[in-house]
Amino acid sequence: MHHNTPLISTVVVGLVLAFILGALAQRVRISPLVGYLLAGVLMGPFTPGFVADQNIAHELAEIGIILLMFGVGLHFSLKDLLSVRAIAVPGAVVQISAATLMGVAMGWMMGWSVGKGIMFGLALSTASTVVLLRAMQERRLIETERGRIAVGWLIVEDIAMVLTLVLLPATAGLLNGESSGGGLTALAWPLALTLGKVAAFVVFMLVVGRRVIPWVLHYVAHTGSRELFRLAVFAISLGVAFGAAILFDVSFALGAFFAGMILSESELSQRAANETLPLRDAFAVLFFVSVGMLVDPAIIVNEPLPLLATLFIILFGKSLAAFMIVRLFGHPNSTALTISASLAQIGEFSFILVSLGVSLSLMTERGRDLVLAGAIISIMLNPLFFALLDRILARRQEEAVPSRKPDAPPREPLRHSMQRDHVVLVGHGRVGRVVSVALRASRTPLLVIEDNPGAIKQLVQDGVEVIRGNAAAPDMLQAANVGAARGLLVAIPDAFEGGQIVAKARAISKSLPIIARAHSEEEIAHLKFHGATSVIMGEMEIARAMLALLDVDRVVATTEAGAPSAA
Q1: 206-212 contacts at long range (C-beta below 8 A, 24 or more positions apart)
Q2: Rg (CA), the chain
Q3: Which of 114, 173, 198, 382 is most buried, judging by how many CB atoms fall within 10 Å of its CB?
């Protein structure tokens, strides 16, 4: 029987194609975003085969935008921005202005109006958060001066783009060259009205939202229901975004951004981010797929010169502007080159801007296609820029002479531990904290691998040796000197990642005792398969402890005899 299910077919085909092409992209060491966008191209009306329902794809993309902006707000750090504000704020503003002017110049050569050129330039001025953070994390640069400047620069760009999304509807008429009888006075009223609505929404969120949202989350967290907590976070993100649009007439994007920003002030923000990550990722993938559906691949053949000009602005124009700005502020070449490579691509906000620009008649479909094609190609080429950066910085270090201060290394070097006969603990969450307290009380040498800044700060204050990062990343276990350790404790709750860590550790030492945690018999089997010596399943240990407290010795013995062995 045939069922007319455009929603299901759009979601299923989109996710399956995105997975296949994203995995292939990851395999050749480029961003999976490229695979997601290409999946959309294959589902779009410009390629043969299955064509998804574009109206449904647009609705799904709106949810993706809300969750993307919620994630941006959730990770917004005013402290990080203030630490590098002296260069990040003027640098990002000047770089956005330079890219916009280059877009206007290209638009003029293509016969577009100034307004359309401004919109085109704005879409080329902002880099992808996902791509930049991935490159920084791979090189362990997040906590370095270069990394903080790049992240702060990106935060300023994000704020500028959020304000742009708010102001564009009010200024669309002026940018389109539509004459109004009152001139600037006629524009001032809708602009003031828009800013007034935004100000009212901001005040409402700071006065009411800052009290209500954390209270709701704390109440739900104390119920002990994980699914209810997850639902509460989604209800807040989507509800605030929808309410902002209905009650204050501001964009979904701004509402979601503020919901995430308010939530980021709560101590539950990290848990909220972790709990909502899978669904946020799924809808973000659908957003990128929907964007890819708008791309006509024939533009590569039909518009080769405009596409090359677009890529020149993205890859070289704004990167050169960023390099000059950073050097003018007195930072070394290594920092300037890192910022330049980081910004040599465009991403999420560019897609949102072009969608809004077309709906407001501020961008032609030709301009949209150029931006989208430029985004896909620039994201594909960005790893090559970082590879070239690594080679340049490595060569500069080799050529450094004693009289000249050497450039920073391409990747922040890992400090290798000198401890021996120590315990390596991966993860310092609820389980890891209990373990580390007991080990320190027994004066057992300890090294912790952790990537949570709050946990790292506390461990450093307590005098514990810490290596920051993901234990599954290359060279992390070698840096922890696992080969000379008396044991490895994998205390993270993610058994998939735990399996990778166990396998890497077992490759280093065949005799190393490795103890991991699991939540199911399947996870026990997975960790044992990769080389874990013993696996502890929390639920089983809780049950045994409860029976032991009741002194039910016979039942405990029976339970242990019938329970699956994890050792």
Answers
A1: 206/262, 209/240, 209/258, 209/259, 209/262, 210/262, 210/265
A2: 26
A3: 382
Domains of the chain, first to last: 7-179+190-396 (1.20.1530.20), 423-562 (3.40.50.720)
521-530 tens-digit pLDDT? 888 889 999 9
Quick: pLDDT tens for 145-194.
777 788 778 878 877 887 787 778 878 777 776 655 455 565 677 677 77
Distance CA 11, CA 57 (A): 8
User: How many Cβ atoms from other residues are within 10 Å of residue 402's Cβ?
Assistant: 6
In this structure, what is the dihedral angle of CA atoms 355, 358, 363, 366, given to the nearest 10 degrees? 90
Do 382 and 301 form a contact (C-beta atoms < 8 A)?
no
In single-letter form, the type of residue at position 135 comes to A
- d(CA 240, CA 208) in angstroms, rounded, equals 12
For the four alpha carbons of 57, 36, 169 and 207, in that order, the dihedral sign comes to positive
DSSP 337-379: HHHHHHTS---HHHHHHHHHHHHTTSS-HHHHHHHHHHHHHHH
In angstroms, the CA 284 to CA 130 distance is: 11
Phi, psi of 265 (to 5 degrees): -80, -15
Q: Is 210 in contact with 265 (CB distance < 8 Å)?
A: yes
Which token pair is 247? 């009650």
Tens-digit pLDDT profile for residues 348-398: 788 888 888 888 888 888 888 899 889 888 887 887 888 788 788 777 666
Distance CA 87, CA 74 (A): 23
